[in-house]
Design a protein that fits this description.
4 helices; 25% strand; Beta Polymerase, domain 2; six-stranded mixed beta sheet; alpha+beta; 137 residues
């Protein structure tokens, strides 16, 4: 059986669209952040970002943070779904699709299980240190 490849944050350049997205999620205290490289599995997008918030309001704040930070770098969403309820917000940037879940909803749908074979680019959980660009001395 082939061993899964895991790419962690130190190998990742935080200067492109995906990096801006991940940093914005961390800034609003998103947890269980997972970026998946899905290019080999679908033409829908190149990357899925999946993360969680501990309340519907936090999920909305994470989505707003990502949208505003990407807008600063002239990236605009093609579509936004689910913002009003805040239990599962989807931000579609074409090559990157971001799923922001209220944690119990994420556990119910288990979206990452559907993409279990996709290489993981970044994982950032509740007890893990933030990516290098976010560490404080």
């Amino acid at each position: 059986m082939k061993k899964k490849r895991h790419h962690h944050a130190p190998e990742f350049a935080f200067t492109d669209k995906l990096g801006y997205c991940l940093k914005a999620a961390v800034k609003k205290k998103a947890f269980d952040i997972l970026a998946l490289d899905i290019r080999a599995f679908t033409s829908v997008a190149d990357y899925f970002v999946i993360c969680s918030g501990s309340s519907n309001r936090q999920v909305q704040a994470i989505a707003e943070s990502i949208e505003l930070d990407l807008k600063k770098h002239t990236y605009y969403p093609l579509g936004i779904e689910g913002f009003t309820h805040g239990s599962w917000i989807l931000l579609d940037y074409g090559d990157i699709v971001i799923h922001i879940f209220y944690q119990p909803v994420r556990e119910f749908y288990e979206l990452e299980r559907l993409w279990a074979d996709a290489p993981k680019i970044m994982m950032h959980g509740r007890d893990e240190a933030p990516p290098p660009a976010e560490r404080r001395s």
